[in-house]
Amino acid sequence: xxxxxxxxxxxxxxxxxxxxxxxxxxxxxxxxxxxxxxxxxxxxxxxxxxxxxxxxxxxxxxxxxxxxxxxxxxxxxxxxxxxxxxxxxxxxxxxxxxxxxxxxxxxxxxxxxxxxxxxxxxxxxxxxxxx
Length: 131
Description:
Blueprint: H1 4-11, E1 19-21, H2 26-36, E2 40-44, E3 52-57, H3 58-66, H4 94-103, E4 108-113, E5 116-122, H5 123-130
Parallel strand pairs: 1-2
Antiparallel strand pairs: 2-3, 4-5
């Protein structure tokens, strides 16, 4: 039986997750996503505390841009991040993860083990694994 851990190993993402501290500026999150050609970052409590406190996605940033004023340039990631994060474990069946992503209208889902994000799953990862 295939698991999310198998999907992520195939896609090369397990253990290679990018994160940003919640007090960093939103523009820094956008730069990090653009440089790495990814659509979502895990938001950590701080640089010293890797506890996941949320995620920030390209959709979050586009919403911020659409309402931006000169004063918003200095806004922090914590102000627009998604706090109620839908996640899965590495042993979760891919079909179950895909159904959960569809139900919650999300394209990215952190893989969490022992309270720590160890990978980021995308709809693309799941669809490529099915082909």
